[in-house]
Amino acid sequence: MERLVDSFLGYLLLERGLAENTLVSYKLDLIDFHAFCRQEGFDPLSLTARQAIILYLLKLKREGKAPATVSRRLAALRTFYRFLLNEGMLHQDPTNNLESPRIMERLPQVLSVSEVESLLNQPRVTDPAGLRDKAMLELLYATGIRVSELISLDLDQVNLKHGFIRCLGKGSKERIIPLGSVASHYVSEYLVRARAKLTRGKLTSALFVNRRGRRLTRQGFWKIIKKYASAARIKKDIHPHTLRHSFATHMLENGADLRSVQELLGHADISTTQIYTHLTRARLKEVYDQAHPRANY
């Protein structure tokens, strides 16, 4: 089993280019499952593997593991067994038709369009740092990129003339993302009027820098967005990915297809993107309840 796990991780690294953190998570999940099989007397490579997986998932549920955690463990097992099947080491997939637990209670927090507008209008664009913040927030909402991707952007990854950014996501996978006219305008304004004042002559390839002229950190951005959320009097629990979640939900609400949103977000699996369809359905139900005269009897 250990040898097969090592081969599997090598495949994920070389063939699929997954990030190191993802590989570590997969390895820990598979080690935990293997330990369960040893303890309960199951052979994870035999016909009893399906029974072992079901009992393992039930054990996680009894232990009070969050639905998202159980779903991630099942995803690791499903990917592992499909690898073995494709390599001819198994004749059937024991995870076939096994459903992940519902994770509705862990849906991401999303801002309404009016809340996004309020948040994006908070920075003072007359101040260099304020103009930087405005450019960052507009770019985040325009593209849906991760905060880690935002702060990693270099100058040569932004093409304002043609309106796109070149983003390196998880596993160093590159994707090209359109940049709307509003975001392009403020990024351009930041480059012309503010960035040099923040760098103070220091040479750096970073697109967004702090007041010391260094690349902005994730912690630095976290403080920035919390400050503006407070100024906008947004009561929802804001976190660094709030604009990413809002971007995806608003795109789907306005008619974007799921595959396009998956591509824009850089999700390897469309099931990750499908969580936003739950959000849009919830929003439709809310609108229905408010608008239909006989929705609530």
Which properties best describe this structure?
mainly alpha, 58% helix, three-stranded antiparallel β-sheet, 3 strands, 14 helices, 2 domains, hpI Integrase, Chain A, 297 residues, DNA polymerase, domain 1
What is the percentage of strand-forming residues?
under 5%
* Strand line-up in the sheet with most strands: 1-2-3
Radius of gyration: 23 Å
The main sheet comes to:
3 strands, antiparallel
CATH class value of the largest domain? Mainly Alpha
Residue windows where pLDDT falls under 50 for at least 5 positions:
none
Number of strands: 3
User: Oligomerization state of this entry?
Assistant: single chain
Quick recap:
The protein is mainly alpha-helical and 297 residues long. Helix content is 58%, strand content 4%. The longest helix has 21 residues.
What does this structure look like?
The protein has a three-stranded antiparallel β-sheet with strand order 1-2-3. It has two domains: 2-97, DNA polymerase, domain 1 (Orthogonal Bundle), CATH 1.10.150.130; 113-287, hpI Integrase, Chain A. Helices cover 58% and strands 4% of the residues. With 297 residues, the chain is mainly α. The chain has helices spanning 2-14, 20-40, 49-62, 67-86, 113-120, 128-143, 147-152, 181-193, 195-199, 218-231, 242-253, 258-265, 270-273, 275-291, and strands spanning 158-159, 164-168, 174-178.
Blueprint of the fold:
Elements: H1 2-14, H2 20-40, H3 49-62, H4 67-86, H5 113-120, H6 128-143, H7 147-152, E1 158-159, E2 164-168, E3 174-178, H8 181-193, H9 195-199, H10 218-231, H11 242-253, H12 258-265, H13 270-273, H14 275-291
Antiparallel strand pairs: 1-2, 2-3
